[in-house]
UniProtKB/TrEMBL annotation:
E.C. no: 3.2.1.35
InterPro entries for the chain: CEMIP/CEMIP2, CEMIP_beta-hel_dom, G8_domain, ILEI/PANDER_dom, Pectin_lyas_fold, Pectin_lyase_fold/virulence, TMEM2_PANDER-like, WxxW_domain
Superkingdom of source: Eukaryota
Keyword Magnesium: no
Ranges for domain G8: 34-156
Protein's name according to its UniProt entry: hyaluronoglucosaminidase
Length: 864
């Protein structure tokens, strides 16, 4: 080879970044910038114009900032954190605002706080309103925060309150009888040895136990407990050995007594112990101890031991009132036992009753001599003369079984999250959200990242423990891994909020008990350039039309087609605790929305508004905890739908489930948009909803001919997932009413109406059909439907459905033949009725019951 026959020469290339080049790459290094420290003055109306270029170098409070006529404001990046408070920032007419750049991301910490009340008397801008960062004609907005992973998946299941990486878990029941000993290294918290001594079966085991304890070195941690029975052949030698270690109850250990003990060998005063007598084959009994230790590396670990007799319980079947029941005031348990022999236990733990129509009743239980039960029903159709027209079931206890649990939690008050991607960009102090993997979206949980010297690149340590189960694996062939999103960023734009709700729009405080007048970012027609990445938005949006966290308003084509190079984008952005949507695309086309997390939002989260919005791409976006809002009928829940009648004709009687109740994580008003790698992980109603505007609405009126959106081909829909939604994971159906209310149709404009989708080439029904392809879609734990798809030529390929109330409905066009020759198709797909994802049982969970082939307890899509 060349290297083996010639001399090797090392050539070092050194790249020198000259000031002019540095200024282009890093805006804050521009030598033409003038240091600006305006101080704190709420009356200071700042005008940056006539080519003036300012470098904000310290925190400031001003009334407002207007950047125009070639003015430029740059945020300095090599100083302490900067907090800028202002009522609004307006950028127009060749004005520019820069926070970092694409090649030189901002590394410091900056917070822009938009302040002010709706009713404080300030004059709103006729286009932008109040409390805004606005980009108008000729304006440039460049925000580029640190590069951080936006979101990923759990790669290992997170159990409620349980231990994670580095812990120890030991559990036994029948077949592991006797005294169980664990020897634990105090330097590391690791179990170095364990053994079982069957002191029920033989005295030799008692001798072996005493000898074993004697060999354990002083300073080691001992965890000792009984499982099942350990007293029958327990002799004095073993009893005294345990007493010497610090036990006070082992001398008196009796038949089947639960007992747990933790100590440091050689230090009896360190001992913790619990002991209780056996309560019989129908009585639970628990002896539980725990102790906190500090390891050699300074980290704490917790040792816990639980010895118990556990009573499992189960509900009987539902029974109707016996014909022979003659009680005038209360029902007797003896009547039910006589009518259903051997089906009801002697002493039920609980009683539930409901009407034959399925309405829950309250039962008041009375005792007679401690045994004979009577109960009284309370309900709207029940009288004081006893229960009528009802059925009842009883909670019965099974025989107890033994259980021993020993845990060593090396992450005290913290948890290790195992993740699918490299998360080394997530740093201590960052906040995360872990999505629900059950039916309720409210099982999403927030965590704060902690320092972790031992974590791998795919792990983070977070403060606290999970309250709910969050699945981190493929279950029965369906990928149910919880999404984990980053909420915090080093560049923040936020609204300054009041402590409580106040009325700035009709009836707001009837629906919300908090201030909803947040800040907003709005980009209008003919802006010069807008690129947003690495940004955190919180307390943004308002319960008024047109004021959303990020809003492209009637901006037309914002990609190369509109002359924007590089094309406009919103990337790597966290939007949370918003008061009106997440990202709104209104009358704008070609926008890239990528790696955006939208969490805890009021109203449709990722929202296309009027119908003509096309060629927009939502790539790898995550939305979760999407709640109702007052703005549009489709945003509203049933109560809002009934109480908000503005825009309706007098005499209008709302039908909430038909007219409203459609709030969605992704609300797509034109099918010709792309959704790729996105997750709709929890909405009050629906994950993805493709809704049809027969004609464009609002300021977009007249932009296309009637019927265009019903026939336009669907953009790319691939590798998306939806779970923890109430109505459906995905819907293709319905339109919106595009005419104002009238005597003929009293419903307000934009109320949901019927609509049928039949895609054709060029949106022309006379040209060949062009099927909508839905590929690699996952829908699980949606309470009503995994997907409801109406219309012709909708084809599904390689999809997964599990644990949905109804997996998939392919609905017809409603008339036949609506689109002659069209078809619906699904292939290469998996349907699972009830998976191994059982969910989390909680005290007040009314939708927990038996299911699956093994009839184990699990969350159910709809309660009794």
């Amino acid at each position: 080879s060349f290297l083996s026959h010639s001399k090797q020469t090392l050539i070092v290339l050194t790249l020198h970044l000259y000031p002019a080049e540095a200024a282009v790459t890093c805006p804050a290094r521009d030598p033409e910038l003038e240091i600006w420290n305006p101080g704190h003055n709420k009356e200071n109306r700042v005008e940056i114009r006539s080519g003036r270029k300012l470098l904000l170098s310290s925190s400031a409070t001003v009334h407002s900032i207007h950047i125009t006529e070639g003015g430029k404001l740059v945020i300095r990046d090599d100083v302490q954190p900067i907090i800028l408070r202002t009522r609004h920032i307006l950028i127009e007419n060749d004005g520019e605002l820069h926070i970092g750049s694409e090649l030189c991301p901002y590394q410091g910490n900056v917070v822009i706080i938009l302040y002010g009340r709706a009713d404080d008397g300030s004059q709103p801008n006729p286009y932008f309103g109040q409390k805004y960062l606005g980009v108008s004609k000729g304006g440039t907005l460049e925000i580029h925060g640190k590069k951080k992973l936006s979101w990923t998946f759990l790669n290992k299941t997170l159990h409620p309150g349980g231990m994670e990486e580095g812990g120890y878990y030991f559990e036994r029941s029948w077949g592991h009888r006797g005294i169980i000993v664990h020897v634990i290294d105090p330097k590391t918290g690791a179990v170095v040895h364990s053994d079982r001594f069957d002191t029920y079966r033989a005295k030799e085991e008692s001798v072996r136990l005493a000898q074993y304890l004697g060999r354990v070195a002083n300073g080691m941690i001992l965890s000792v407990a009984v499982n099942d029975e350990g007293s029958r052949n327990l002799d004095d030698l073993a009893r005294k050995a345990m007493t010497k270690l610090g036990s006070k109850h082992f001398l008196h250990l009796g038949f089947r007594h639960p007992w747990s003990f933790i100590t440091i060998k050689g230090n009896p005063s360190s001992s913790v112990e619990d002991h209780i007598e056996y309560q019989g084959h129908r009585g639970s009994a628990v002896a539980k101890v725990f102790k906190l230790f500090k390891a050699e590396n300074g980290e704490h670990f917790n040792v816990s031991s639980t010895s118990e007799w556990v009573q499992d319980v189960e509900w009987t079947e539902w029974f109707e009132k016996p014909d022979k029941a003659r009680s005038k005031d209360m029902e007797k348990l003896s009547d039910f036992k006589a009518a259903h022999p051997d089906k009801i236990c002697r002493q039920p733990i609980d009683i539930q009753a409901m009407t034959l129509d399925g309405v829950n009743l309250t039962t008041e239980v009375f005792y007679k001599s401690g045994h004979d039960y009577q109960f009284l029903c309370h309900g709207k159709d029940q009288t004081g003369e006893g229960c009528r027209n009802y059925r009842v079931r009883f909670l019965c206890g099974k025989s107890v079984k033994p259980k021993l649990t020993v845990t060593i939690d090396t992450n005290v008050n913290s948890t290790i999250l195992n993740l699918a991607d490299d998360v080394s960009s997530w740093k201590p102090g960052d906040r995360l959200v872990v999505a629900s993997t059950d039916y309720s979206m409210y099982q999403a949980e927030e965590f704060q990242v902690l320092p972790c010297r031992t974590c791998r690149p795919t792990q983070v340590k977070v403060a606290g423990k999970a309250t709910y189960l969050h699945v981190g694996e493929v279950v029965d062939g369906v990928d149910m891994r919880a999404e984990v999103g980053l909420l915090s960023r080093n560049v923040v734009v936020m609204g300054e909020m009041e402590q409580q709700c106040y009325e700035y729009s009709s009836k707001l405080c009837s629906f919300f008990d908090f201030d909803t007048f947040g800040g907003h970012i709005k980009i209008g027609l003919h802006f010069k350039a807008t690129h947003i990445e690495g940004l955190e938005l919180k307390y943004m949006g308002q319960q008024t039309m047109g004021h959303y966290p990020i809003h492209f308003h009637m901006a037309g084509d914002v990609d190369e087609k509109g002359g924007y190079n590089p094309p406009t984008y919103v990337k790597d952005t966290s939007i949370h605790n918003t008061f009106s949507r997440c990202v709104t695309v209104h009358g704008s086309n070609g926008l890239l929305v990528k790696d955006v997390v939208g969490y805890d939002a009021l109203g449709h989260c990722f929202f296309t508004e009027d119908g003509p919005e096309e060629r927009n791409t939502f790539d790898h976006c995550l939305g979760l905890l999407v709640k109702p809002s007052t703005l549009l009928p489709s945003d509203r829940d049933s109560r809002m739908c009934k109480l908000i009648t503005e825009g309706a004709y007098p005499g209008y009687i709302p039908k909430p489930r038909q007219d409203c109740s459609a709030v969605s994580t992704f609300w797509i008003a034109n099918p010709h948009n792309n959704l790729i790698n996105c997750a709709a992980a929890g909405s009050e109603e629906t994950g993805f909803w493709f809704v049809l505007h027969h004609v464009p609405t609002g300021p977009s009126a007249g932009m296309y001919s009637p019927g265009y959106s019903e026939h336009v081909p669907m953009g790319k829909f691939s590798n998306n997932r939806a779970h923890s939604n109430y109505r459906a994971g995905m819907i293709i159906d319905n339109g919106v009413k595009t005419t104002p209310a009238s005597a003929k149709d009293k419903r307000p404009i934009l109320t949901l109406i019927s609509g049928r989708y039949s895609p054709h080439k060029d949106a022309d029904p006379l040209k060949p059909r062009e099927p909508a392809i839905i590929e690699r879609f996952i829908a699980y734990k949606n309470q009503d439907h995994g997907a409801w798809l109406r219309g012709g030529d909708v084809w599904l390929d390689n999809c997964q459905f599990a644990d949905n109330g109804i997996g998939l409905t392919l609905a017809s066009g409603g008339t036949f033949p609506h689109d002659d020759g069209s078809k619906q198709e699904i292939k290469n797909s998996l349907f699972v009725g009830e998976s191994g994802n059982l969910g989390t049982e909680t005290i007040d969970n009314e939708i927990w019951g038996p299911g699956g082939l093994d009839h184990r307890g699990r969350t159910l899509p709809i309660g009794p």
